[in-house]
Amino acid sequence: MFIRHRHDPQLRKYPISMPWGLKRFHQTRNLHFLTFSCYKRLPNLGTPESRSTFEAALERVRLQYELGVYGYVVMPEHVHLLVSEPEGGTLAEAMQSLKQGVARRLALRAADSFWLERYYDFNVWNHSKFVEKLRYIHRNPVERGLVERPEDWAWSSFRHYLSGDPDLLRSSQHWMVQEGASWALS
After folding, report:
1. Which of 64, 102, 130, 146 could be joined to 141 by an S-S link, Cβ 3.0–4.6 Å?
2. Domain spanning 28-184, CATH class
């Protein structure tokens, strides 16, 4: 397989958003905070329909790979997930399936790629990091000025934590326990 070097002049046209030499620690039984972006940071998820398509694909992957999804937000040009390692397959396989499924549904005849090739992966090794990452996910639409309150952004796990309604996420036993989840809201 041919991989261009980061100093290749062709790659300088586009800013590199994912760090080179990123180490991924899988099969650790840790949770993972993942970020992946649309190609050239284009708003490929800029419509309610496209964000709902992503949510449907996330649910398919969650079931197929037995993936625990603890938090997510779908932004116009990127996605954040807080997930477990899948019981069926690897995290890389699950993310590949998710990204390919969304791209096939939303960009069948597009000239450019839908997603950037790589994704950022941060191992969440303790409760305080879990809270930090979940709060970051839920506050992202507010920080970007898309809504005034996290509960106003429909394409996020925030409303699940707010209401405890499992149907908002088609919840499984992998979702965070309902009781005492108020820390996720503040």
Report:
1. 146
2. alpha beta
